[in-house]
Automatic annotation (TrEMBL):
It is found in: Plastid, Chloroplast. It comes from Ziziphus jujuba. This is Ferrochelatase. InterPro entries: Ferrochelatase, Ferrochelatase_AS, Ferrochelatase_C, Ferrochelatase_N. Keywords: Chloroplast, Heme biosynthesis, Iron, Lyase, Plastid, Porphyrin biosynthesis. The gene is LOC107412374.
Length: 514
């Protein structure tokens, strides 16, 4: 059996040129004000596309990256030898580097595969305290509330899923991405197994972890398939992983590292720019098209109260894509807005629908929508953007509409994910505190525990994204009181009409039958 030996990077030796890392460092590491280009500036001549606004102060504290089983740093930075046999089957159950069996766990949201799955899927979603965080005193209501809201919302959601073929394409696409990533890793002499762990539907994270144990994986790279970190997405999955790891002796001894976000990677940025460049060419006058980045929203309180880095990462991501486009002499106007709001609380602004209406009023005629928070097609690209927002845009006078496809299995993107995994391997179970390269993003590489400790450590109570009853003169109480009052009036009316008795009859508003 022929054996090939390849050297893996001694520390992070990214394919990305050094200046790319360096360019990102001041933004990512300093605790001073961050500068962002004003997205609203896109429509204004006076505010050039390069106008800078101070928007965000990173609260990033220095983090200690060591999981319980951390090796000495010296050891982790020793070049690893990747041992792959040319005859090893691609789906071998025992992928080895040295004596280690390497696994990559892709974390994703999951989606209902049939219309019957919609309500239980929604139940799982709303039962997650990172989606609806109830006050401590009311935690026991989490499941009944999730049941209530999921039943209440299911019919609306089902309409959406019916419109895109009767279910979410997420599982199929994520499985395909996992397979392409595995092939890419093997082609780079890293024989790893790749697993998919969904948060709210099959294959659940718990199932993936069982398989990881059965396969005897000893080093695990955890890679959420969200380019930007949010408490409500990657954070929620990491919290689940933490609880699974904590209770399992095997997992406690398995070394791991997490790549919490990767929006800043050159390969991802270039892949997004490629897609935008290609779609722009379809328009008659490509330079007149406004590039409309539409990100999934989160409630404002996640960012302002719990310190979710999601908004800052999203804005930085858009900046980096725009910089890449500028290098290609593409200098279109652009804007960023947030979609998919659920419930009455305030979410990140500007909202996508309101921004489309504004752009229409300002006379914009061509719009290219760019979904930016997710790398697969899903209900919010296929239904919300392609149907609802397109319809709204056409109604608002926008004549030419285009949409950039999600990255899916785009080869340059998958290859870059593989590089991200390879670059993280020296940090599996290791301390990376002083490694500048490991700290490129607002949420740098670390272990599950460290990341959860760094973000949202107190797990503060947040206003829920859906209407939940609260005591006092609050918005939700007003909403629920209003609904209760309307219901009571309806019941009284029905009683009046059916019994012929009541206030309206006594006051002579309705005729007395007697
Ligand atoms: C980065 C992406 C996402 C963030 C942030 C996010 C936060 C978030 N979502 C909800 C509520 C719902 N999300 C739903 C579906 C859904 N959400 C995302 C991504 C993010 N969510 C995706 C990719 C999908 C689609 C999955 C699919 O099946 O294709 C749904 C269900 C669909 C619907 O009824 O609209 C809900 C509900 C909240 C409350 C939230 C932040 C707190
Ligand atoms: Fe969502």
């Amino acid at each position: 059996m022929a054996e090939s030996i390849a050297m893996l990077p001694s520390s992070i030796s990214s394919n990305a040129p050094l200046d790319h890392h360096l360019r990102l460092l001041p933004r990512s590491l300093c605790n001073t004000q961050k500068l962002y280009r004003c997205p609203e500036a896109c429509m204004s001549d006076s505010l050039s596309r390069n106008s800078l606004v101070a928007k965000y102060t990173s609260t990033q504290s220095s983090l200690l990256f060591a999981n319980k089983q951390s090796q000495s740093r010296q050891k982790c930075l020793t070049p690893l030898k990747a041992v792959a046999t040319s005859e090893t089957p691609a789906n071998s159950a025992s992928p080895l580097i040295g004596n280690d069996k390497i696994g990559v766990l892709l974390l994703n949201l999951g989606g209902p595969e049939t219309l019957d799955d919609v309500q239980p899927f929604l139940f799982n979603l709303f039962a997650d305290p990172d989606i609806i965080r109830l006050p401590r005193l009311f935690r026991f209501l989490q499941k009944p509330l999730a049941q209530f809201i999921s039943v209440f919302r299911a019919s609306k959601s089902k309409e959406g899923y019916a419109a895109i073929g009767g279910g979410s394409p997420l599982r199929k696409i994520t499985d395909a991405q996992a397979e392409e990533l595995r092939k890419s890793l093997w082609s780079k002499n890293v024989p790893a197994k790749v697993y998919v762990g969904m948060r709210y539907w099959h294959p659940f994270t718990e199932e993936a972890i069982q398989q990881i144990k059965r396969d005897g994986i000893t080093k695990l790279v955890v890679l959420p398939l969200y380019p930007q970190f949010s408490i409500s997405t990657s954070g929620s999955s990491l919290r689940l992983l933490e609880s699974i790891f904590r209770e399992d002796e095997y997992l406690v001894n398995m070394q791991h590292t997490v790549i919490p976000s990767w929006y800043q990677r050159e390969g991802y940025i270039k892949a997004m720019a490629n897609l935008i460049e290609m779609e722009l060419k379809i328009f008659d006058s490509p330079d007149k098209v406004v590039i409309f980045f539409s990100a999934h929203g989160v409630p404002l309180a996640y960012v302002e109260e719990a310190g979710d880095p999601y908004k800052a990462e999203m804005e930085e991501c858009v900046d980096l894509i725009i910089e890449e486009l500028e290098k290609r002499k593409i200098t279109n106007a652009y804007t960023l807005a947030y979609q998919s709001r659920v419930g009455p609380v305030e979410w990140l602004k500007p909202y996508t629908d309101e921004t489309i209406i504004d752009l229409g009023k300002k006379g914009v005629k061509s719009l290219l929508a760019v979904p930016i928070s997710f790398v697969s097609e899903h209900i919010e690209t296929l239904e919300e953007i392609d149907v609802e927002y397109k319809e709204l845009a056409l109604k608002c006078g926008i004549e030419n509409w285009g949409r950039v496809p999600a990255l899916g299995c785009e080869p340059a993107f998958i290859s870059d994910l593989a590089d991200a995994v390879i670059e993280s391997l020296p940090y599996v179970g290791a301390m990376a505190v002083s490694n500048i390269e490991a700290r490129q993003s607002l949420v740098p590489l670390g272990s599950v525990e460290e990341l959860l400790a760094a973000y949202d450590s107190q797990r503060r109570e947040l206003p829920p994204p859906v209407t939940v009853w609260e005591w006092g003169w609050t918005k939700s109480a007003e909403t629920w009181n209003g609904r209760a009052a309307m219901l009571a009036v309806l019941v009284l009316l029905v009683l009046e009409v059916t019994t012929g008795e009541g206030f309206l009859h006594q006051w002579g508003i309705l005729p007395l039958f007697r």
